[in-house]
Design goal:
By secondary structure, this protein is mainly beta. It has no helices and 11 strands.
Length: 118
Amino acid sequence: QVQLVESGGGLVQAGGSLRLSCAASGSIFSINTMGWYRQAPGKQRELVARMASVTSGSITNYADSVKGRFTISRDNAKNTVSLQMNSLQPEDTAVYYCNLRFLAREYWGQGTQVTVSS
């Protein structure tokens, strides 16, 4: 059974920073993708950033809206992924979900609220 436990999030003023962390436990294949998605009220869940661990290294993708402001990182040995969010804006307000994919399986964390006040 794979579980994802998120931490971080909270309330911050515009221009501020937050850091989200996610720890995965269970039987996890070494070649996998870990990342973050978010869902704002009334909107669809969208990709924020993801990092694929492949045999030759890693591949990182960011949503255009967060490029230059957010940084994803992971520790493969610990099966953790983090998201450093800088220069936060009110439009970044959403529930952020940790995501893990491998071998056609997909797992989600419970979500953590990020609220950015103007």
